[in-house]
Amino acid sequence: MIEPAHKRSYADACAAAHALDLVGERWALLVMRELMLGPKRFSDLRATLPGISANVLTQRLEGLEAASIVVRRELPPPAAARVYELTEWGYEAEPIFQALGRWAARSPTHDPTLAFSTNSLIMSLRTMFSAAKADSFSARIGLRIGFESFQAVVLNGEMTITPSADAGDDAVLQGDARSIAAVIYGGVPLEALEAAGALKASGDRSILARFFSLFPLPPKASAHGATP
Fold first, then answer.
1. Owning domain of residue 121
2. pLDDT tens-digit series, residues 19-54
3. Is there a cis peptide before residue 78, judged by omega within 30 degrees of 0?
4. Which CATH number belongs to the domain containing residue 45 in this structure?
5. What is the pLDDT of residues 108-124, one digit of tens each?
């Protein structure tokens, strides 16, 4: 068993404290976020977490592996590469990310203009999706983000987003994660981002407009104390 570097513990029987023993180190949760959509190579993780050093990333991967949250495996030829992926238990953490995301989105100091990875975008869409707003709407939306392709399927008040290059999309949005977030969460007009060359849209634009409306952000928290 690999021993995580610089392992620290709260020495507290509370399960929440133990959770922090497992993933409370700086960057640990973000490493998990970047693996939530599937396995990645070490170099891929560094590229999506530009602020992390190789040494710290190695330490976090070792710690997560020791905690049975992450595993390493070798891809068969012709890839022949080592990748890191979440264990089945590791994938069970997605609701934790969703709860944290909904809670932190209410922060008055949250800055949505900072770096935003592809995984951040996909997981945020899964988190902020409103079944009530979807109502009877059904559609297949293609999302082309860099070299990655996804398909969002909205049906019967539910949404799934999976890696896909399906040609059966009703509409397709192509661009970087930050620009897609700007049009969905920031209310930036699609036409403005198209004119700037940041996004490219094709297919039924009315379907895209309806899709953009399905992800309302929660209201900001008050800076004052709670009313007794």
1. 111-212
2. 998 998 999 999 999 999 999 999 999 999 989 999
3. yes
4. 1.10.10.10
5. 998 877 778 999 999 99
